[in-house]
Design goal:
Layout lengths: L1 H16 L6 H25 L5 H4 L4 H23 L6 H17 L18 H11 L24 H6 L1 H10 L13 H12 L5
Helix pairs in contact: 1-2, 2-4, 4-5, 6-9, 8-9
Length: 207
């Protein structure tokens, strides 16, 4: 915006102050960028906050999800544009809302349910995965996190095995199903470690 709209405006004002005819290209470019800003405001806001919606960017068709969100945002913004012109077209925001809800319904992970340990298979206990939790997760999810000011969402995973078991569902969903945590995999959690967490959860989250 600054390099096109503001800069172009300054050049046009400077030309007018000199008594010259401003170059119309600056106005055309400014209008073009303003149109882009109008229709992409909501999708950009969503993209900025998308770390809270891991099921969208970890989905197999994440590009298509983003396209649906962008289209929904465009329809909603067009509703307001048309309303300012005196036309109230309710089908636009309704269609946008349907697209958003459809995208979320499509990407929503299926609820995970712990299953009984297979006969003869060694049970994976919380003590087996606690070193993984300490190394990969507890830098944020502990009473005294080293990477955060406080534990995100108040989820504590380091202090006691009971806390790990209490958050078994969330650990499995975020680290195994969505692979959204650790955020950006900053602590480099491996697939083998995720599989071990899955085995612990599917074995009944044994403490």
């Amino acid at each position: 915006m600054f390099s096109v709209i503001i800069l172009g405006q300054r050049k046009m004002v400077a030309s007018m102050l000199k008594g010259e005819t401003p170059n119309a290209i600056y106005g055309k470019r400014g209008k073009q960028r303003s149109v882009h800003n109008t229709y992409f405001t909501l999708p950009v806001v969503f993209a900025m906050l998308s770390n809270h919606c891991a099921m969208t960017y970890t989905h197999k068709f994440n590009w298509l999800i983003l396209v649906l969100i962008m289209l929904a945002g465009t329809l909603i913004r067009q509703f307001f544009v048309m309303r300012h012109r005196g036309q109230v077209l309710w089908y636009m925001p309704v269609a946008g809302l349907v697209l958003v809800l459809g995208a979320f319904a499509w990407t929503m992970p299926a609820p995970t349910v712990a299953v009984a340990q297979a006969a003869g298979a060694p049970a994976v206990k919380v003590a087996d995965i606690q070193p993984i939790i300490q190394q990969r997760c507890a830098t944020c999810h502990s009473s005294h996190p080293t990477m955060m000011g406080s534990a995100p969402a108040g989820v504590l995973l380091l202090d006691t095995p009971a806390e790990i078991k209490q958050n078994a569902q969330r650990v499995h969903q975020q680290a195994v199903t969505l692979k959204a945590m650790p955020l950006g995999n900053v602590t480099q959690m491996t697939d083998a470690e995720r599989q071990k967490v899955a085995a612990w959860f599917n074995g009944g989250a044994v403490e």
